[in-house]
């Protein structure tokens, strides 16, 4: 059963996020809310289109459109984690029908599962968009609450076999603190690890890091400009933090539907995007 709610004001949303109470893992149950009759922000749509392309083409916009409602759901869900400590692992967007961003729609967000592993607690969060009673878009995100002291067994470099599959970079762009602030104002994601060098270091990071979804939007935008084709559905993995300032490069794996955003020397892959063509 989904709880029908109005969209929270920003102050109320912040209050709920800060004061959310943790439960025990064994007490976790799926939690869902529905917010009806939502209108996309015309200013946000316009800014997104100017920065990356139209939401009909760059479908990762759905993540931004559902971001506030998704946070509203997680902030209320009885979970054994703090909202601010969650790390974004992946984002999958599937479109089932035409969605008009200038007409009202309903959003249902469900914290569907919570699983324990050696890494920590992993959550699957599903955001469904409905227009005129029809499911149009589904955005599935996987988040991690990393276990204290856990250190991933990361590769020092991208494996040679993987590098051999990469073509030349077809897009490169620079990112810095100004880029992060512009995207934060566009997206509503004001997490200090992306915006404040001092606070980022206080939280254990060597520097501020770029929003993972910024690189996702930019990657999909460059692919669309390259192919000039409908990208279809997309699956995005977030691999390594992208510290700023930085110059990153978008590359394709052979002639496949897989792409990556890399550091200049290909040592670090920040995200990997798979374009899931129909058929």
Give the SSE layout.
Blueprint: E1 3-5, H1 10-18, E2 31-38, H2 42-51, H3 61-76, E3 87-95, E4 105-116, E5 120-131, E6 134-146, H4 160-164, E7 171-175, H5 177-187, H6 197-202, H7 212-227, E8 233-238, E9 246-252, E10 258-262, E11 269-276
Parallel strand pairs: 1-2
Antiparallel strand pairs: 2-4, 3-6, 3-8, 4-5, 5-6, 7-9, 8-11, 9-10, 10-11
Helix pairs in contact: 1-3
CATH class of the largest domain: Alpha Beta
CATH architecture verdict of the largest domain:
Roll
Rg estimate, integer Å: 19 Å
Count of the domains: 2
Q: What is the H/E string?
A: EHEHHEEEEHEHHHEEEE
Helix content: 25-40%
Per the CATH scheme, the topology name of the largest domain is Thiol Ester Dehydrase, Chain A
Under CATH, the homologous superfamily of the largest domain reads Hotdog Thioesterase
Regions with little confidence, pLDDT below 50 for 5+ residues:
none
- Count helical runs: 7
Number of strands: 11
**Basic shape:** globular
Strand content: 25-35%
Question: Structural class per helix/strand content?
Answer: alpha+beta
Mean pLDDT: 92
Q: Terminal Cα separation, in Å?
A: 34 Å
> Biggest sheet, strands in spatial order?
1-2-4-5-6-3-8-11-10-9-7
Taking the sheet with the most strands, its summary is: 11 strands, mixed
Organism: Psychrosphaera aquimarina
Domain MaoC-like: 174-248
Protein name: MaoC/PaaZ C-terminal domain-containing protein
InterPro entries: HotDog_dom_sf, MaoC-like_dom
């Amino acid at each position: 059963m989904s709880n029908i709610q109005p969209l929270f004001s920003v102050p109320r949303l912040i209050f709920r996020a800060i004061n959310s109470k943790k439960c025990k893992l064994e007490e976790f149950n799926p939690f869902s809310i529905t917010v009806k009759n939502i209108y996309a922000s015309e200013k946000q749509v316009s800014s997104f289109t100017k920065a990356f392309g139209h939401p009909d083409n760059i479908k990762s916009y759905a993540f931004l459109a559902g971001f506030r409602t998704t946070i509203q759901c997680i902030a209320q869900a009885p979970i054994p984690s703090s909202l601010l400590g969650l790390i974004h692992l992946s984002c999958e967007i599937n479109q089932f029908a035409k969605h008009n961003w200038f007409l009202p729609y309903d959003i249902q967000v469900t914290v569907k599962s919570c699983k324990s592993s050696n890494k920590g607690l992993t959550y699957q969060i599903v955001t469904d968009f409905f227009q005129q009673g029809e499911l149009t878009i589904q955005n599935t995100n996987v988040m991690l609450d990393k276990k204290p002291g856990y250190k991933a067994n990361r590769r020092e470099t991208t494996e040679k076999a993987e590098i051999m599959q990469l073509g030349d970079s077809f897009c490169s762009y620079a990112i810095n603190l100004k880029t992060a602030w512009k995207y934060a104002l566009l997206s509503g994601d004001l997490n200090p690890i992306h915006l404040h060098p001092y606070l980022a270091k206080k939280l254990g990071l060597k520097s501020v890091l770029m929003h993972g979804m910024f690189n996702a939007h930019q990657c999909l935008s460059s692919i669309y400009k390259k192919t000039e084709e409908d990208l279809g559905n997309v699956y995005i993995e977030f691999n390594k933090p992208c510290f700023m300032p930085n110059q990153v490069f978008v590359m394709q794996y052979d002639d496949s539907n897989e792409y990556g955003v890399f550091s200049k020397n290909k040592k670090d892959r920040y995200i990997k995007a798979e374009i899931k063509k129909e058929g």
